[in-house]
Amino acid sequence: MPLPLESIRVLDLTRALAGPFCTMCLADFGADVIKVESLPKGDMTRNWGPYDQDIAAYYLSINRNKRDIAVNFRNPKGLEILRRLAADVDVVVENFKPGRADEMGLGCDTLRAANPKLIYASITGFGRSGPYGDWPGFDQIAQGMSGVMSLTGYADGDPTRTGVPFGDVAAGMWTAMGICAAVAQRHETGVGQRVETSLLASLVGMLNVQGQRYLSANDIAGRIGNYHMAAYPYGTCEASDGQLNIGAATQPMWEKLCHLLGLDELIEDPDYVDNAKRMENREALCEILNQRFRTDTAIAWTHKLVEIVIPAGPVYTVDEVFADPQVVHQNMVEEVDHPKLGRIKQLANPLRMDAFEGKTVRTPPPGLGEHTRAVLTGAGYADSEIDALLETGVVAE
After folding, report:
1. Is 168 a catalytic residue?
2. Domain 9-206+333-396: which CATH number of 3.90.550.60, 3.40.50.10540, 3.10.180.10, 1.20.1250.20
3. Active-site residue (options: 52, 158, 168, 383)
């Protein structure tokens, strides 16, 4: 079975995280992604440690399954190469500051005039227009301005960024989904279209329940730590060796939990008789539950709770995640041969599709300009032309 996007060619003009994450998703689905890096240093993430030998883990994390060409963006001949490549691809993805692509002759209108079937995708910090349209955007800035930080952390603590860069990742995922939708529509219309989102819009669009609470009831949600906003017990408890997540979110689950913990008297206790009362008195109830949970380990309690169909699980550190037997069984880590590092491990795509045939990491993150000659040859450049471009520093390999 061919991969879903095997017939799609993507010119990736992005750098940092949101854009490369988007194009990695497309590459996982089989698209031929040509990553363009600017000379002399390439993608900024190549300089963000820690390193495996002298290759940045940050860069390795978001660039698998791509080809790579290194181009001097400051040279008019370099920009002409990019326009020539854009004329023969299905998708262009960029995350320049608004207006910069147009200044370089790589804007949507320019490229689509030469290639009407082109799908042109843009990721910005705040959108291409509006009062913040010309602002640069970073993940943490968007987390703060989207309200996400105001919802993250403990009630008596400061607003806190999430542990992974959700603004960048969300924008990349939304854009990849929009590109796939545009590809599907192009089968019907024969023409491409602009696809765009921003870090801010991506996070505001994911406020879901918390956002609707305000829109429907003028209810401004705040930070509640590891408690759930609508049910208790649903959150973390203290086991003998660390934190334990449990989700006894319904009345039957609550009663089964009481039986398991030898706390049957709480079922009829007026302070805990239903979810509303348990939410009202959750601080006191939390300490009662913790006294029981501290008598055994998180994983031991997990097995006991799951046996009676109450969702539960330990709170892992990253190293514990990759040692977990379910993560191992689900093949969430794959291995691939790297020309410099040898056999390396990579996070797998979390989707499972028949077309993947059990493998999502097919090629390692490329070296700077690793495929420059091959890409230019495919674009119709003669060997002598490529040699001249290399000699004059317009491109590198």
Report:
1. yes
2. 3.40.50.10540
3. 168
